[in-house]
Amino acid sequence: MRIELIISGFGGQGILFAGNLIALSAMKEGHQVTYLPVYGPEMRGGTCNCTIIISQNEIASPLVYHPSFLIIMNYPSFLKFMPNLKKGGSSIINSDLVKPEEIKNLQILQKKYKLYFVPVNSLAETINAPMLANLCALGAFYQITKIFNLKNFKEALKETLGSERSHLFEPNLKAFNLGAKYINQNFK
Amino acid sequence: MRIELIISGFGGQGILFAGNLIALSAMKEGHQVTYLPVYGPEMRGGTCNCTIIISQNEIASPLVYHPSFLIIMNYPSFLKFMPNLKKGGSSIINSDLVKPEEIKNLQILQKKYKLYFVPVNSLAETINAPMLANLCALGAFYQITKIFNLKNFKEALKETLGSERSHLFEPNLKAFNLGAKYINQNFK
Amino acid sequence: MKAKKILVKGVEAIALGALEANCKCYFGYPITPQNEIPEMMARELPKRGGVFLQAESELSAINMVLGACAVGVRAMTSSSSPGISLMCESFSYIAALELPAVVVNVMRGGPGLGGIEASQGDYFQAVKSPGHGDFHFMVLAPYNAQEAYELTAKAFELAEKYRNPVMILSDAILGQMKEPIILKNLKIKEYPKNDWALTGAKNRPSRIIRSLFLDSQELKKRNLKLKNKYKKMEKEILFEVSVENNEKAILVAFGSMARIVKEVYFILKNKGYPVGFFRPITLFPFPVKPIQKILHNAKNPLKFLVIELNCGQMVEDVKLAVNGKAEVISLFYPPSVIPFPEELERKIKKWIK
Amino acid sequence: MKAKKILVKGVEAIALGALEANCKCYFGYPITPQNEIPEMMARELPKRGGVFLQAESELSAINMVLGACAVGVRAMTSSSSPGISLMCESFSYIAALELPAVVVNVMRGGPGLGGIEASQGDYFQAVKSPGHGDFHFMVLAPYNAQEAYELTAKAFELAEKYRNPVMILSDAILGQMKEPIILKNLKIKEYPKNDWALTGAKNRPSRIIRSLFLDSQELKKRNLKLKNKYKKMEKEILFEVSVENNEKAILVAFGSMARIVKEVYFILKNKGYPVGFFRPITLFPFPVKPIQKILHNAKNPLKFLVIELNCGQMVEDVKLAVNGKAEVISLFYPPSVIPFPEELERKIKKWIK
Amino acid sequence: MEERCKACGLCIHFCPKKVLDLSNKRNKQGYKVIYPKYPERCNICGICYLMCPDVVFIMDKKDES
Amino acid sequence: MEERCKACGLCIHFCPKKVLDLSNKRNKQGYKVIYPKYPERCNICGICYLMCPDVVFIMDKKDES
Amino acid sequence: MDKIAFKFPKSLKSTLFHYCPGCHHSIVHRLLCEVIDELEIQEKSVGIASIGCACFLYFYIDVDILEAPHGRACAAATGIKRAKPELIVFTYQGDGDFAAIGFNESFHSALRGEKITAIMINNTLYGMTGGQVSPTTVPYQKTTTTPEGKNPAYYGYPPKIAEIFSNLEGVAFSGRFAVNTPKRVLETKRALKKAFLAQIYNLGFGYIEILSSCPVNWKLDPIKANKKIDELINFYTLGVFKDKVENFLKKEKN
Amino acid sequence: MDKIAFKFPKSLKSTLFHYCPGCHHSIVHRLLCEVIDELEIQEKSVGIASIGCACFLYFYIDVDILEAPHGRACAAATGIKRAKPELIVFTYQGDGDFAAIGFNESFHSALRGEKITAIMINNTLYGMTGGQVSPTTVPYQKTTTTPEGKNPAYYGYPPKIAEIFSNLEGVAFSGRFAVNTPKRVLETKRALKKAFLAQIYNLGFGYIEILSSCPVNWKLDPIKANKKIDELINFYTLGVFKDKVENFLKKEKN
Lengths: 188, 188, 353, 353, 65, 65, 254, 254
Ligand SMILES: Cc1ncc(C[n+]2csc(CCOP(=O)(O)OP(=O)(O)O)c2C)c(N)n1
Ligand SMILES: Cc1ncc(C[n+]2csc(CCOP(=O)(O)OP(=O)(O)O)c2C)c(N)n1
Ligand code: SF4
Ligand code: SF4
Ligand code: SF4
Ligand code: SF4
Ligand code: SF4
Ligand code: SF4
Ligand SMILES: [Mg+2]
Ligand SMILES: [Mg+2]
What we know:
The complex is a heterooctamer, with 2 copies of chain A (188 residues), 2 copies of chain C (353 residues), 2 copies of chain E (65 residues) and 2 copies of chain G (254 residues).
Chain C: E1 4-9, H1 10-20, E2 25-28, H2 36-47, E3 51-54, H3 58-70, E4 75-79, H4 81-86, H5 88-96, E5 102-109, E6 115-118, H6 123-127, E7 138-140, H7 145-162, E8 166-171, H8 172-176, E9 178-183, E10 208-209, H9 216-232, E11 239-242, E12 249-252, H10 255-270, E13 275-280, E14 282-284, H11 288-297, E15 303-308, H12 314-322, E16 327-332, H13 341-352
Parallel strand pairs in C: 2-3, 2-4, 4-5, 5-8, 7-8, 12-13, 12-15, 15-16
Antiparallel strand pairs in C: 1-9, 5-6, 7-14, 11-13
Chain E: H1 10-14, E1 20-26, E2 32-36, H2 47-51
Antiparallel strand pairs in E: 1-2
Chain G: H1 25-39, E1 45-49, H2 57-60, E2 64-67, H3 73-83, E3 88-94, H4 95-101, H5 103-112, E4 117-122, E5 125-126, E6 132-133, H6 152-155, H7 161-166, E7 171-178, H8 182-200, E8 205-211, H9 215-218, H10 222-232, E9 239-243, H11 244-253
Helix pairs in contact in G: 1-8, 4-5
The complex binds thiamine diphosphate (2 copies), iron/sulfur cluster (SF4) (6 copies) and magnesium ion (2 copies).
One thiamine diphosphate (TPP) sits between chains G (51-54, 70, 94-97, 121, 123, 126-129, 134) and C (29-31, 58, 82-83, 86, 113).
């Protein structure tokens, strides 16, 4: 078992928060894990991505060029990372910002990869939490991979939020569940 | 022809001025020459010495451990440099500060070396120029070695004093002559 | 809190290591990519009776460290390439004054302002001349978070043992990536400082800590003392080696780059290529003898491939160790484009075909 | 004033060389043993329509130089070891910005404040890493006043030719000794700067001189550009050699130390010892090929004795050049006790008995 | 010019005539851009120009101010 | 204490009673040292102690001040 | 004067600003360009970009621009102005750059009366590196390195640089401004112009300090951040503290 | 108080001073030792020797002494005081060290209100290196690097550090003094004591600036050099500019 995941989007979309949460959940699951954020110098705006590797064996390089999984949160990220996805790899795509109908070679891609279009922004807005699109994507990732169990995720989330932000636990979980549910209902 | 000269004394005794003057005179004479000053960090006080090498051939090292000539202006310098004088070498010694009668092994030294005790301070005071003891010593050096001629010395002195200090030319020359005369009258 | 597994950034592991070593003072100035160190120290040190002070510059920070060390208190600073360069004069003083300072450099791309991504471009600076005159830091290069944590803690012990500054040389990859570490009781030894620290001349003659020696004999003596100390440090040499003596090529790398190289080593090994792996952990003193041992035991003519995130720096130390007895090849990756394992594999294969 | 012979200190020869090259700006901060340079520049530059400004620190001085160079004006600074260390961050910027600055280091004993006597302890710093990141100064090491004068003048030309900073690496012996120099018209070439200097965006697009490249590909490109430049500089290698191919030992030294070594070389040669003499003048780029040529032409197995006023630094570059093909021995004299020729002769004889 | 807008809201806040509001349209930077909700109210006082950090209010786009 | 003297003359200048002068005797540093030319005039005002940069005027050398 | 242009300044490049929404850096950029345009000095100006959020100055301002090491902008500017006095030289620096690491260069340039114009954007913290404490951080303000708030007993009080500079003979113009209201924007622009005129008329060092919002690191939305500036004014009095330009212009008229 | 001891201070070592004849450095050394003795802090003091003519401080003052790099004495002192607040920490610096290369460290230590005592010996030039111009050199003064005299239009006017510092909240004592007359010597000593008390009572930064003669580099004999100080006072007003100690002591009494 080994997943190489890249999450990518705008700064401010909670990319790093989500990446960190996945890594932590996977660690709690007992996996080896590395999490490598990459970001521009600006505090907001600009692109932002991170690489998470989850494995049962020692992870040497925390970098991969050909990830096996992608979470694509905006269009520039789609352009940048899609071409590098490993053959047979999976990708969750924020369909609010990357519309399937606007993708030229959609069919070719769908043959090579498993694509999960999830309108994470819209989903998050349904619970009045537009900032939580990242958690929707994370829920989708969970539902697809089941690389960690819910209990570990919840623990990880609680830990990450800490006491000052503990009131955000429920909304985050809600968004997570929405994402998971969306996969459940729309794929497979 | 090659002279390795070390001049040593207190800071403030004009050691470097004299050393420079000798080097410049010798250069004007057409010799190869190096002049290496060594001094403490203080502006005054402390010891101070310089090494001048005058030669007809290329001078590689500007340092010598066993000089062939010494000008000793105070007692600490006597202690420090006398033992290193080359066999058969010469030394001008400021007898105002290094009294021959206070030197323990005077006879041994006199056998090995040519010693010229010159009361340079007293000489300089006779012309009311206590600061010019260095020039007296220089005169003595000239008289002993004749390594440059008087014309070149005068030119060097004029150049060194420059226009602002040109009024000091005559006193300096006077002191120089006193030193030369002292050698003439008291040695050989 | 012992034997707890947590997910942290490499730079946080460094801060935790310092706290584990009971470092009492942190002085620093912000610079990416290591701000998590001061930020963690700002939160944690006051709780533990320590001092966190952000200085007005790196120049000031390193001299605060100098002061604190001089009075016998464990102190450190951390920065990244440009900030480290700014400290060079003071490094030379600290080494000359024989103060046990710990300095962390989380390297970024240079020269100049460069970029904030990973680089190993300060190898020469760290190892050859972090300032003027003949002196050396002991330089430790961790390659994962656990090592970053443990080596940083150890750095305080080594600094005191030798009364010499120690540098943790890391980079933005290791610094910014997160991975699990296990918090341990590292039992860091504390060396007595009561024979040299400036603590007030009570019941003893007053002390001087100085680097000015106008008497050239004294200065020479001090320089030889330092030289001997560096010799003695060779006892502390650390490295990782995977060699079975039948290799044809040894891959040499340190720090984060060694992780990528190790990945490639695993891949090539699996594919049956005769490659070995060597990772210096102490960069100064450099593991010369372990390299010579590899050469000595090798059954085949060897090639050393030295892979670095710079224009080729450590390769010189490998060459000096190998001394003409094998080919030494520099595979250099100027900052900040980090080669992916896939790419590096292709490149290495060309050399060992 | 041409072809005139005058008696000057080495540091004055340096200042005269800069004036001969029509250097227009001097920015600096006092430090022994090189104060004669700013003092001469303070007297002479205003007369020649140039600018002398004493800065509040070396840090400020080097950035004034950076500014003046960026607008296309010949500018320099000079200092001694601690002051040079303080400039390391800015050196890295200057190299990254590709500015033709000229920097003089009249080395003194280190580390720390050390002493004011001669030393060659900053060889590593000058040659390997005068700051963070992958960059190099071109480094020129004069060994007498005439060379100090001519190389300093030449430094301005080379700096512009390569758009790279050039360092004159001297020391307190050469700096403070006086000897005759012959003033010449050195015909220093001036390279056009109108394609890069910041002179106001009149009738052309505005220009940027920067070292920050957050795009890692751009940063890589810049680094490779620098690396290529350093390669090209090898055309400028300078050295002095006295070898007849039948030697058993080659004495290698640079700067002032080379004078003392040369004296010993003369003495030993006269006494019939089979010794040669090699003096690198460019320390970066280092004369690798000339050393390899000596090796190649040698009729006997050779020994290289590398004699330095430090704890052994250039010896590494000699070893790298020799690459195991001959024994390389370091005769190191930590600053500031300078060996007299007599002493050195004894020591060398032991090695070549 | 709406590509420059970052939805900071300063113009909305300072507009004395409450002319402006955020639209639902996102620009390439990903921000919901400003639009003149009540263009007729605008008195061309220039305050939006003064306060906009992103130089969005430029005259040739007359509808905006 | 006269070994400390550097013949700067500050004490001579400031002594209100003109007690002090330079002697012809040189100390090991090479300076002609201070001496109380008119010791009887001294009123122990302490000004020489205050102004001497080299801490020459110390009480156990009573003759000097 | 003070007519509002609705015009994209000639010396402003069309590149999108990388600044966070509501950041005042870019307001000042625009004002700077307006002043450069009005004084018609675009073709003879050299700007010094410093290290901080505004290090990309050169992507926005269309004059020759040099990047100086962190804190050294005033020294580099000195080098330029001394080497080529015919150029108009300005620095654009953050509070960390100007008042912390670079204060010595800033102070001594002002002391010498360098004929340069220095703009200091005071957002009371280190924006680019993620919001650490700065000497200019006000008492009890929380930053990432003063998580409990900045204790003045521990870190002291912020320095009043504009006031200090106004007492230096070499300084021709010195003042503190803000851009959080339309009126203040206009005042700031007028002051900026004066700080350039101080240079153009060779009167001395021109210094402009601008209280500036950093919504992201202040953890406030742009509007609240804007309002926060009004609080800062309690510590940092706005105003012109020295103005040799006004006098000079009056004399010129006579 | 102010009794004249004719006594060799206990905390003064017997080593001969290396200073030039008539140099004021050594007068201040003696005063410093007298104050250390009177306050009985010899056993808990750490001094920071700076780089300048007084770098050999440790050969004269019999307390623990650290040598800091040129200009960094206040930073090193900060490190010491923060690490061990129970120590009494002072720096002894020249004008070049304190006000030129090290001014940033000096200023920010004062700004933070470090509980240290800083002594700045202002001889208006770089003594140790042979008399070059300093920021503190007064207008038209000749030095080796201003052979025609220091032109204020080129180098500016000397900074009034004691006055600047008196406006910083963190500073508890600040003043400028001289030791060229018996009265001033006594005043300087009183001030030195205050600057230590500021630290001892934890009130803040104690700063003492002392106009000091450098006969050798001024090219004057010691007496003339001493008189020259009276001229300097035209630029450098003597006096106490801030004194929180006095108030504190008054309050203590009540
Ligand atoms: C020598 C050095 N130290 C630290 C840094 C990291 N650094 C970059 S910007 C910055 C501070 C920026 O703060 P400020 O000057 O206030 O500008 P702002 O971003 O707030 O506008 C720092 C510390 C650096 N680039 N160089
Ligand atoms: C980094 C550095 N730059 C320069 C020097 C040389 N230096 C030694 S002392 C000194 C200045 C001394 O002047 P000041 O501080 O006024 O003390 P003074 O000698 O006048 O008492 C300088 C520039 C140094 N040691 N280190
Ligand atoms: S110009 Fe119009 S839109 Fe702009 S602030 Fe004024 S009234 Fe509002
Ligand atoms: S002020 Fe400018 S950037 Fe902000 S919302 Fe209005 S138009 Fe957009
Ligand atoms: S104590 Fe005596 S000698 Fe000294 S100054 Fe007073 S009167 Fe003169
Ligand atoms: S003041 Fe002191 S040093 Fe000077 S002459 Fe008098 S006794 Fe001697
Ligand atoms: S971090 Fe602050 S100062 Fe920097 S761009 Fe963002 S808002 Fe502006
Ligand atoms: S040079 Fe000046 S300051 Fe230094 S010891 Fe001599 S007189 Fe005193
Ligand atoms: Mg800021
Ligand atoms: Mg001074």
